[in-house]
Small ribosomal subunit protein bS21
Amino acid sequence: MLIIDSKDCENIDKALKKYKKKFEKAKVLVQLRERQSFTKPSIKRRAQVLKAVYKQQIASGKIES
C-alpha cells in the first residue's frame, strides 16, 4: 500500500505526481505482468545469459547500437 504524505496547502497535482513516482518505483505493474504467466527458471537464466552476451558484444565493439 502506497502512502503519500501531503501538506494541507499542497496542490492535488503535486500529490498525484508523488503517487505516480512511488507507484513506478514500487514496480507493481512489473510484478503483475510477471505473475500472469509462469516462466521456467532455465528460460529466465537463458535470457539473462543472452542479454549479458549482447551487452558484452556492444562493449567490445562487435555490434554497433
Q: What stands out?
A: The chain is about 70% helix and 0% strand.
